[in-house]
User: Fold this.
Amino acid sequence: MSVGRAPCPVCLRGSPAPVCRAVLSPGHERGISRCPDCGAAYYFPIPSGEEIARCYPPAYFGGFFKQYWKDYCKGRAYAERLTSWRREGDLLDVGCALGTMLAGVRDHSRWRVRGIEFSPAAAALGRGLNGLQIESVPLTAAPWPDGEFDCVHVNNVLEHESDPRAALLAAARLLRPGGRLELTVPNGPVDLLPNIELSRKLGRAFPTRHGGHLFFFSRRSLEILLADCGLRAVSIRCFHLKLGFKARGWLPRAYRQFLADAKEPAGRASESLSLEQGKALIPSPPNWPLYRFSSFLRRLWRFSGSEFGYDFEVVAEKL
Assistant:
């Protein structure tokens, strides 16, 4: 099937055309196409489940133990923002990894928390570490009834989904009327820009900045997708301006990461991490008042109406 005959899986319109090739995982190069109507880009054809799994070796999750307190403090700060909206409610975090952010919300608010994590190993480690309900299922197979949650949090997950439309429809199903979807996703045109530029200049494919990204959403494609799924965009803000500079090649050695060889770390890809091994990686906790203040300052650099930064922060409401 040619790309031109396949409608865009995001807006269901358009005739996507190839824009570059990229390395999905070490030794696996694939083509990426872009829709002229909504601006979304994606691997075409969509990789198989086996190909996607290669992006996440077991050792991939060791980093979540190392950033335990960062995620916990992020959850504590998020609890304050949730409580300012509603005093209590039910929160689902999609792609929760070890559930550490949820633990921070649980311990510092009256919100009830649950998580979904695609990796059974990470979900099991998270249940043991944080004592949370973490289901290892796709979002489309979430085991809760319609309208179970007041807020569904999807942080840097939608771009990893092989069917983002089905995933957002599932999130909308789980929300109560008036409930919130809080979505963080890379600014697709900026995320993909280094690969397009380097491919054009050097004539070969490179890994994307973050492994496992299957879709690259533009602001317009997100607006279309949200509306089609029964969600009203309340705000779309752009942030990570420095990364936006780097993606455009405006900083010294901006593309150094991309020019490095994409090699699987020797002796790490097949390792499984035990809970006790993971706990040994957890560092000392940071100073909470200092973290809270720095988090407040970082959130000031989020702009509506701008598409310069590397990431989008979206708040949408179920109609």
